[in-house]
Design a protein that fits this description.
Blueprint lengths: L3 E5 L7 H14 L4 E5 L7 H4 L9 H5 L10 E2 L5 E3 L5 H6 L5 H9 L4 E5 L6 H9 L2 E6 L3 H16 L4 E9 L4 H12 L2 E7 L2 H8 L4 H4 L4 H14 L3
Parallel strand pairs: 1-5, 1-6, 2-4, 2-5, 6-7, 7-8
Antiparallel strand pairs: 3-4
Helix pairs in contact: 1-11
Bound molecules: adenosine-5'-diphosphate and magnesium ion.
Length: 236
């Protein structure tokens, strides 16, 4: 069974953190022991989205060799467990991305699912998360630059020994949904887990530091993410 998924895209702002937080929460709501790990050590956003931005120990300290991973695990919504990164530049500088594999192995033994939020780009801290997961899920927006960057990420993942089987199309428009999904599947050579619509509730829920699947459970984005969670966990 696949347990550790890295959520990646290449391009920034496609919705990796949004998907990580909400898919993680939706899996937790299905009763799955789920951990999310903020491997975007440079631009850490999971803590900000979940009101954990001021916690004393984060992945930064763990990757710097100053703390154990147990000290950086916090309770999120619906039983979700969260390992946030810190927001300080110094913390980013001290964090050694090569320690991430060890952290991943430590966490994956405790849970049904581990979702790793990857940074954009192809620097060292961006590449390690692609190599260590069982599967990479590409978060793609229906626009050419996002698709091209996702393809580059897929090629890079395979180069470093990782595996990409799935994509989630985020910020999808209302028209030609099936066509767009098929086109992206074909361009990237991956299977779509589903399309998450452009939905203003995503931003609104962020202001409440609450995942949209909890704050607005019947919104279009929530329903789509919950369907994807059900598919991943085989609970449909
Ligand atoms: P990334 O982690 O890939 O950089 P984020 O998850 O931080 O991307 O999302 C970038 C921005 O897009 C955020 O402001 C977020 O609220 C918004 N966003 C993400 N997904 C959606 C969506 N489906 N509908 C509307 N806004 C979205
Ligand atoms: Mg992010």
């Amino acid at each position: 069974m696949i347990r550790a998924y890295t959520i990646a895209s290449g391009k920034g702002g496609t919705g990796k953190t949004t998907v990580t937080v909400n898919l993680g929460t939706a899996l937790a709501q299905l009763g799955k022991e789920t951990y999310i790990l903020d491997a975007d050590v440079g631009m850490a956003n999971i803590g900000i989205l979940l009101g954990l931005e001021n916690v004393p120990v984060t992945l930064h300290e763990v990757l710097a060799g100053k703390a154990k991973v147990d000290e950086a695990i916090y309770d999120g919504p619906a039983g979700l467990k969260v390992v946030p990164s810190g927001i300080s530049l110094q913390g980013f500088q001290d964090a050694n991305p090569d320690r991430l594999r060890e952290v991943m192995h430590d966490l994956v033994d405790r849970c049904d699912y581990l979702l790793i939020d990857a940074p954009a780009g192809i620097s060292r801290d961006g590449v390690v998360p692609l190599a260590i997961a069982d599967e990479v899920i590409l978060v793609v927006n229906p626009e050419l630059s996002s698709i091209v960057d996702a393809l580059k990420t897929k090629i890079l993942t395979e180069l470093v020994g990782g595996h990409v089987q799935y994509a989630i199309i985020n910020r999808a428009g209302k028209d030609n949904l099936d066509f767009v999904e098929k086109k992206i599947e074909k361009s990237l050579g991956v299977k779509s887990l589903g399309s998450v619509p452009e939905d203003s509730h995503v931003r609104e829920s962020a202001a409440y530091k609450t995942p949209v699947v909890i704050k607005y459970p019947t919104s279009g984005s929530s329903r789509a993410i919950k369907r994807i969670a059900a598919e991943i966990s085989g609970c449909e």
